[in-house]
């Protein structure tokens, strides 16, 4: 029997995606502008309450969302595999990555040379064939791949084996080093975290030291909790380090925000030095370790990094991406509202909060009329 001919999207009408974000009308966009910023100034480049329309570069692949087929075509073209860009409408982090990183001609050329790029809306109901040949929905595939935040980037080889997962905004310099890591074969010899640490340029925050803050629980760090012996409150573990370039801003704008500090009083908050190999830590799961080894085991690659745990010890949310005020408010709400028990990811919760705000705004407008 002859194999079925491979579908060539370049010679076919593009299959439209049934996006799960159809509700995002002008009214819905207005809601996202209401995400709390608590009056703290934010640079335009990292305004996580800004509204950005997501437009993928025109060199992204037009796909029928058959990932094994896409991977086979990448192999035929002599490429390493696929680059999947999970995004959602209104995501300023996604827009900034497209504009700054993918807008860099050298990065764009190198990414195209080594990978076929696909853009996926994480709330899409469109059918997708995963690497196991199973039919699913894009939104379910995103959940299965552990996508919590937009943007999330995943690289796969031509056999569908995941190579690298990145979460959050990656600037041109850092993303270029990720491409070096993949294209030059470093991933076969060293983990991404170690490679980025080895190639990290000198930080602008040289000399910054970890500040003391009464918000943080003092040692000993006996953090064990379980379903049988739950804690009274959820847990936030914050990893920082000396000379952390992004940490001063996180302290000033996020932890310095009164509304956020008020919400965090409902948590046990522990701050650990990611370079500390001496201080003993008993993790929520009961493992004995130290901050340096735990940071590595959690798969983080940059600082600050946050890991949220439920009262019974489940790790329900973690990120080492840029977190500003709106994202921190939503992260806290994701944990305290326990929506992870419904199978939600962070981005779905953030969208639900935006919808509540638009409904409240509509109600106030109606009352005013």
Could you characterize the architecture of this molecule?
With 369 residues, the chain is an alpha/beta fold. It has two domains: 9-198, Glutaredoxin (3-Layer(aba) Sandwich); 221-336, Glutaredoxin, CATH 3.40.30.10. Helix content is 33%, strand content 16%. It contains twelve helices and 13 strands. It has helices spanning 26-32, 67-76, 92-101, 105-114, 138-144, 172-183, 192-198, 247-255, 258-264, 291-297, 325-336, 346-368; strands spanning 81-87, 115-121, 127-129, 135-137, 152-157, 162-167, 221-222, 235-240, 268-273, 281-282, 288-289, 305-309, 315-319. The chain has a four-stranded mixed β-sheet. β5 and β6 (162-167) form a beta hairpin. α1 (26-32) packs across α12 and α4 runs parallel beside α6 (172-183). The longest helix has 23 residues, at 346-368. Mean pLDDT is 85; it is low at 1-44.
CATH-wise, what's the superfamily of the largest domain? Answer: Glutaredoxin
Whole-angstrom Rg:
21 Å
Total domain count: 2
Structural class based on helices, strands and sheet pairing = alpha/beta
**Helix amount, in percent?**
25-40%
CATH topology of the largest domain: Glutaredoxin
Quick one: overall form? globular
Q: DSSP helix count?
A: 12
Number of E-state strands: 13
CATH architecture term of the largest domain: 3-Layer(aba) Sandwich
Query: How do the SSEs run, as a string of H and E?
Result: HHEHHEEEHEEHHEEHHEEEHEEHH
N-to-C CA distance? 70 Å
CATH class designation of the largest domain? Alpha Beta
**Low-confidence parts:** 1-44
Specify the biggest β-sheet.
Answer: 4 strands, mixed
Q: Roughly what fraction of the amino acids lie in strands?
A: 15-25%
Widest sheet, order of strands: 2-1-5-6
Q: Overall pLDDT, averaged?
A: 85
């Amino acid at each position: 029997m002859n194999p079925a001919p491979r579908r060539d999207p370049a010679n076919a009408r593009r299959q439209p995606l049934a996006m799960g974000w159809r509700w995002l009308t002008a009214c819905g966009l207005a809601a996202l502008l209401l995400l709390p910023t608590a009056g703290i100034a934010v640079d335009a480049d990292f305004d996580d309450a800004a509204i950005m329309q997501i437009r993928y570069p025109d060199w992204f692949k037009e796909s029928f969302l058959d990932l094994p087929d896409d991977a086979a075509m990448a192999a035929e073209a002599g490429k390493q595999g696929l680059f999947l860009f999970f995004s959602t409408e209104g995501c300023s982090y996604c827009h900034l990555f497209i504009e700054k990183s993918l807008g860099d001609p050298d990065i764009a050329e190198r990414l195209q040379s080594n990978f076929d790029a696909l853009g996926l809306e994480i709330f899409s109901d469109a059918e997708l064939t995963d690497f196991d040949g199973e039919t699913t929905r894009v939104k379910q595939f995103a959940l299965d791949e552990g996508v919590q935040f937009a943007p999330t980037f995943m690289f796969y080889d031509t056999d569908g084996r995941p190579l690298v997962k990145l979460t959050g905004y990656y600037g041109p310099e850092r993303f270029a080093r990720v491409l070096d890591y993949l294209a030059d074969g470093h991933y076969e010899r060293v983990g991404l975290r170690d490679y980025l640490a080895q190639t990290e340029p000198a930080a602008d925050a040289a000399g910054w030291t970890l500040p003391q803050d009464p918000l943080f629980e003092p040692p000993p760090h006996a953090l064990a909790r379980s379903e049988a012996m739950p804690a009274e409150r959820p847990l936030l573990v914050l990893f920082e380090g000396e000379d952390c370039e992004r940490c001063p801003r996180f302290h000033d704008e996020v932890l310095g925000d009164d509304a956020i500090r008020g919400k965090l009083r409902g948590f046990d908050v522990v701050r650990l030095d990611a370079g500390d190999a001496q201080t003993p830590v008993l993790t929520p799961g009961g493992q004995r370790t130290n901050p340096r080894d735990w940071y590595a085991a959690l798969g983080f690659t940059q600082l600050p990094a946050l890991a949220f745990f439920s009262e019974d010890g489940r790790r329900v949310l973690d990120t080492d991406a840029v977190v500003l005020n709106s994202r921190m408010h939503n992260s806290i709400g994701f944990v305290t509202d326990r929506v992870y028990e419904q199978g939600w990811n962070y981005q779905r919760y953030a969208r639900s909060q935006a919808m509540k705000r638009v409904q409240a705004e509509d109600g106030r407008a109606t009352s005013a009329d």
